[in-house]
Every structure is written in structure tokens, then in C-alpha cells.
Amino acid sequence: MPLLLDSLFSSVAASHFIVDVFNASRPVLLTYMGLTETQIALYSAIYVWVSALTQPFFGWMSDRVGPRWLAAGGVLWMTVFFAGAIFIPGTWGLISLIVAALGSSAFHPVGTVQATLQGRHRLQGRETTATSLFFMAGQLGHFMGPVITGLILARMGLPALIILPVVSIPIGISVAYQLRQNHPHPRVKGDDGKVRLQAGWGFILLLAVVATFQSWSQANMINFLPKYLKDLGLNAQTYGNMAGLFMGGSALGNVIGGYLGDRFTKRKVAAAALMLAAVPIYLMSRIGWSPWLYVLVPLGGAFTGSVHSIMVVLAQRIVSGGMALASGLILGFIFSSGVLGMLLTGPLAEQYGFPAVLVMTAGLVLVAAPLAWMLRENPNLSPVRGV
Fold it and tell me: Do the beta carbons of residue 211 and residue 341 sit within 8 Å?
């Protein structure tokens, strides 16, 4: 595929990979530190909120001053403060980890827009496919992050995690070079930069609910599956591998969902994926620890992850005022809404156990499926193209 050979797209995708390696290492790192489910939920919530709620601001800034230093600076910012989380003990190390989330916030809106634009220019308008490939790079980071982190922690201990910041430095420098022209993101003719909604409130509310339930279901799996497996007596390498398998499945599903979303009706693809996701998630709640988890966990990730790019592209089309701003708004909403649910999930997991949480998660995707089917796009909403 010519897009994968494009130096700009590849550099942005590699940056997304390393940013989400950092993000995905968080649940395994917090579990290794001995935190409870409620503490994991609290620190993860703060981390994600710091990232999510600032994304619209960074997107707005990128639309006006260009993407270069927000993209490269985001990678390098995470490099510095993740290293601080490794070497600073106690509460201050956790604070450094939370501050690192601002780097993720700065990068994501910028990287999403660059991927969308490259899809329009190099894939004859197949923006959902391009966006899904970009998110696949991030989800591969989510896959590799727990696996690498669990392996390093199990065999070499916490200080050896400095390997990750060292690897990220040349990636940050590379994306700074690729975006050296630093052109602000294009707008349509007549766009004065003001935020306007280009869809009815019914469509927006449905999209928000579907995005919330999809994000909540993934947050439950990503943040609590390692703790559940640790409580069953498994070591850091094993629960890191399992968390990685969930995100590996999500990465594959994201690409398939993006491809199908360009070929068929997006709402139908999303509804079918969410309906199918309930099956492996519910089966996980019934079997405890079993080798079948090596099949069910990535399947659950694939079906829930396949909806992500579709939600982002639909949101980009209904918010005017700048592509990065629109991307920041939807990504910020998806991440923060999932965290709100996760704060409820943490105490529930402690009181009733993670199998009960899995049953609840299967219910979330079952409710989201028919709502996704109702997401009828306005035919007048077309991709925003630069002039």
C-alpha cells in the first residue's frame, strides 16, 4: 500500500506507536507497584483526563500554528516524564506519570489529522482506511506496551524500563523533521475558525452514547484485566502478555473496521461489531483462567476496537472550525467518557469481582449495538477538504 511507504505517514504512525506504548504500560506498571483496583482506577482516571480534556485545546492550537512542535513535542514530553516516573519513587513518581499524559494529548489530534489528510491525498479519499491504519499503529503500541513492560518488570525490574524513553527520542526527532514545513491544517472555504455543529442533536447524542459505551468497555478490559490475572496468581509477564493480546486484537479489528467502513455503511459495520463483541467478553466471565483466554481476549479486542476509527471519522465531519480541533474534541470525549465509567467499575470489581464486570461489559456493547445502527448520516456531510 503506497500510504505505508509515505515518509510523513510512516513517521506519524511510528510516533503514535511509541506514544501508546507509553500509555499502555500504565496499567501493568500500576499493577506491579501493588495498587488496588480502586487506586488503579483513580490514577488511570486522572491520567486519561489530563490527556483527554486538553486535546481540544491542542487541536485548536495546531489548526492555527501548525502541527510540527505539538507532534514532536508530545513524543519528547512523554519521554522525559515517563523516565521520571521510573526513577522517582512514591507519589512524585506517580505525578510525573500523570504529567506525561500531556504529551499524549498534544500528539493525538495532530497525528489523527495528518493521517486523514494523507488518506485523502494518497488513497483517493479513503480517509477511514488511512485513519484506521494510523490508529492501528497506536493499538500495536497498546499491544506491545504491556507485553514489553511485563517482560522487563518480570526479568529486570523497574529501572530497566528506561529502554522505552531511549527508543522514543529518535522517533520524536524524526517526526519533527517530517513536519518541518509546519503548514496549519487546511479549512474549507468560508470557514472562519468558529466551532459549529453540522448535524442534528439526535445524531450527536447517539454518537456520544455509542462512543461512551465502546470506550467504557475497552477501559474495563485494558485497566482491570492485568489485576484480575495477578489475583489469580499469574506473574507480570503473563498478565502483560494478555493485556497486549487484547490491544493486538483491537489493532487488527481497527484496520478491518476502517476498511469495511469505507466499503459499506458505517453504522451497520459498527453495530455488527459491537453485537459480536458481547460473545467473547461474556464467555471470559464464565471460564476464569483458561488457555481459551488466548483466543477470547484478542477477539474481544478486535470487535470493540473495530468501531474506533468509524466514530472518529463521523465526528470529524460534524464539527467545523478546524480538523485538529474536531479530532481533539472526539478523542477527548471518547477517552474521558470511558474513564468516567471506569471509576464506577473499580469499586464494583473489588466488591463483586472481575467476572461480574465482564458480564456488565458485555451488556454495554449489547446496548450500544442497536444505537449504532440508528446512526444515519446526513448525506450532505462530506469530508472537509482543503482549498
Answer: no
Q: According to the 3-state scheme, what is the secondary structure of 259-321?
A: HHHHHCCHHHHHHHHHHHHHHHHHHHHHHCCCCCHHHHHHHHHHHHHCCHHHHHHHHHHHEEC
Where on the phi/psi map is residue 385: left (φ > 0), alpha (ψ -120 to 50), or beta? Answer: beta
Contact between 371 and 209 (Cβ < 8 Å)? yes
Of residues 38 and 83, more confidence is placed in 83
Instruction: Domain 2-373: give its CATH architecture.
Output: Up-down Bundle (1.20)
Considering only CA atoms, which of 6, 106, 21, 129 is closest in space to residue 60? 106
Who has greater pLDDT, 125 or 290? 290
3-class secondary-structure state, position 33 = coil
Asked if 115 and 196 count as a contact pair (C-beta separation under 8 A), the reply is no
Shortest CA distance to 118 belongs to which of 128, 109, 130, 135? 130
pLDDT tens digits along 71-120: 889 999 999 999 988 888 778 888 899 999 999 989 988 887 777 777 66
Domain ranges of the chain: 2-373
Report residue 320: phi and psi, to 5°.
-95, 170
DSSP string, 108-150: HHHHHHHHHHHHHHHTTT-HHHHHHHHHHHHHHHHHHHHHHHH
Say how far residue 190 (Cα) sits from the centre of its chain: 32
How, if at all, do strands 196-197 and 319-320 pair? antiparallel
Report how far apart, in Å, the C-alpha atoms of 332 and of each of 53, 310, 339 are: 6, 15, 11
DSSP 88: S
CA 112 to chain centre: 11
State the Cα–Cα distance between residues 172 and 24, nearest whole angstrom: 18
Radius of gyration of the chain, Cα coordinates, nearest whole angstrom: 19
Residue 268: the pLDDT is 87
Please count the other Cβ atoms lying within 10 Å of the Cβ belonging to residue 102. 18
Cell 468501531 belongs to 307
| SS3 of residue 181 by DSSP | coil
